[in-house]
Amino acid sequence: MRQKAVFFHAGCPVCVAAEQQVAEAIDRARFEVEVVHLGEASARIAEARAAGVISVPALVLHEQVFHINFGAALSDLG
Q1: Regarding the domain delimited by 3-76, which CATH topology (the fold level of the hierarchy) does it fall under?
Q2: Phi, psi (deg, nearest 5) at residue 77
Q3: How far is CA 70 from CA 19, 37, 48, 63, in A?
Q4: Which of 59, 53, 28, 63 is nearest to 77 (CA)?
């Protein structure tokens, strides 16, 4: 059974570049990756915040948040 990973981003150039890097690097045989564009799915900002995301792009994996770079603060999104 694959584990779930969630990649949160806001669609900015930094986020898009990070999404491409994550897509290439993560083992899809081990992880099911859900990509959440918070600019288009603003209802999920609370979920990201509850997971510990403070800026995007961020990858939530094994209930840990990995802030990849700084594209935007989560507080700027909503």
Answers
A1: Glutaredoxin (3.40.30)
A2: -90, -20
A3: 13, 15, 15, 20
A4: 53
> Looking up tokens 């948040």, which residue turns up?
65
Q: List the domain boundaries for the chain.
A: 3-76
Query: What was the pLDDT predicted at 69?
Result: 86
pLDDT in tens, 3-25: 999 999 998 888 889 889 888 88
